[in-house]
Amino acid sequence: QLQLVESGGGLVQPGGSLKLSCAASRSILVYYTIGWFRQVPGKEREGVSCIDISGGISVYADPVKGRFTISRNNAKNTVYLQMNNLNPEDTAVYHCAASRIQGRECVPTGSWGQGTQVTVSS
Fold it and tell me: For 30-69, what is the HEC assignment?
């Protein structure tokens, strides 16, 4: 079973940047498409971005296009989410999970961990 641990969140001012990491406990990340999702209390979970096994295909939700970049290093069993030009609407708990790319959407297929809090505030 794929177990993932998210890290890299924090408090940042509007316009700032953060880089999130999603690390697997074993060398099996290479077999999975991985997605980033975010959730705000009281709102539905939102798919943010997905990257396929090879790293050659990625999809992004409209609100983050042009600001966020997903990447992966299979040798390090890690998927990253570089977030630039952050705004308060990006405030959420960010999770990663095994996923599949369905059209232009990222659909979770596996469980996720505790997530990492991102807070964008001045």
Answer: HHCEEEEEEECCCCCCEEEEEECCCCCCEEECHHHCCCEE
Query: How much is the pLDDT for 28?
Result: 82
Contact 86, 41 (CB under 8 A): no
What is the mean pLDDT of the segment spanning 15-27?
Answer: 93
Strand-strand pairing, 18-24 and 78-83: antiparallel
What angle is formed at CA 57 by the lines to CA 48 and CA 50, rounded to 5 degrees? 20
pLDDT one-digit tens code per residue, 65-96: 999 999 999 999 999 999 999 999 999 999 99
What is the chain's alpha carbon radius of gyration, rounded to the nearest angstrom?
A: 13
- pLDDT confidence of residue 25: 80
Q: Which residues sit opposite 108 in a β-bridge?
A: 99
Angstrom distances, CA of residue 36 to CA of 93, 108, 122: 10, 9, 25
Question: Strands 116-120 and 10-12: what pairing?
Answer: parallel
Whose tokens are 């996720």? That residue is 112
